[in-house]
C-alpha cells in the first residue's frame, strides 16, 4: 500500500470515530466507553504495526513490527481509555 493511501484511510477512520451521538442512559455510556477503549487499543496496534513494517529489513523488520504493535496498542489504550 502506498503511504498516501494509508494516511487517507487513517484520517477517514479518525473522522468517522468522532461521529457518535450523545448516549441516553448510564449503561449506554459504559458500553460506548468500553467500545472506545477497545477500538483505541486495536487501532493503535494496527497503526503501530504498519509504521513498524516500514522500518528495517529481514529479522529487524519483524522486531520493528512487533514493537510497533506493542507501543501502538499501549498508546491507543492510553488515549482512548481515559
Automatic annotation (TrEMBL):
PROSITE patterns: PROKAR_LIPOPROTEIN. This is Outer membrane lipoprotein SlyB. Keywords: Lipoprotein, Signal. Residues 1-26 form the signal peptide.
Amino acid at each position: 500500500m502506498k503511504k498516501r493511501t494509508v494516511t487517507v484511510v487513517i484520517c477517514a477512520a479518525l473522522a468517522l470515530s468522532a461521529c457518535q451521538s450523545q448516549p441516553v442512559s448510564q449503561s449506554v455510556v459504559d458500553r460506548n466507553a468500553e467500545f472506545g477503549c477497545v477500538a483505541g487499543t486495536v487501532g493503535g496496534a494496527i497503526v503501530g504495526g504498519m509504521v513498524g513494517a516500514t522500518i528495517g529489513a529481514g529479522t529487524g523488520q519483524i522486531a520493528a513490527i512487533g514493537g510497533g504493535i506493542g507501543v501502538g496498542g499501549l498508546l491507543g489504550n492510553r488515549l482512548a481509555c481515559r
